[in-house]
Protein: DUF1080 domain-containing protein
Organism: Sphingobacterium micropteri
Amino acid sequence: MHIQFGSTLLFLILSLSSMAQTKFKPEDTEFYSPKPPVVTLKNQVPSDAIVLFDGTDLDQWVSRNNPEQAATWTVENNILTVKPKTGDIQTKQTFEDFQLHVEWKSPEIVKGEGQGRGNSGIFLQGRYEVQVLDNDDNPTYVNGQAGSIYKQRPPLVEVRATEDKWHRYDIIYKAPRFNKDGMLISKGSVTILHNGILIQNNTQIEGTTEYIGLPKMEAHGAGPIILQDHNNPVSFRNIWVRPL
């Protein structure tokens, strides 16, 4: 009796489900507005992107130490290169959620080892560092290698440079949210593709990426994108951002 009752109940459920579906027409579950905006590509840059560096100048950047001062890194042959000991540079504009594309290259002359070799960084909202480091046969702590959320999360895999020696980061970032009293509502998260390979998959950011000590979670709003001067002449090109 139990088996028969179960079979009968299943039949009734399937029948009711089928009857419910027959009440609908295809157009009942179709909608035509609002339409997504059209985005095209020109030279591999989305038409709705803000170009932060196209190889010509540093008009979109200022000194991190003195935002009233123009950025002084070297621009040559369509490439931006860290000018050691001049300090970090940051965008004039500030951002919250965004898609960021950055291409970077280790110095032509390899010097040092570990964290002293081809070291730079990309700071999201000026607080959360995605590590830039010469990865090739250069052992270091895994949460400090290229593609890591510095001192927090190592990359899922280690990606080496392409034949042209350039690395490409595509970063999709969701900023943390705070209420009007400064209390944390949700932590930030980041997804990163390194040369097209997924290395951070919706990774939660625990707070500031401290060199010493634990992450700090401080209430904040929109912030700049920062490129780090770590005394190594790391190069960058083709930098653009799409606010989301």
About this structure: DSSP finds one helix and 17 strands in the chain. The mean pLDDT is 92. Residues 69 and 193 are 33 Å apart (CA to CA). The radius of gyration is 24 Å.
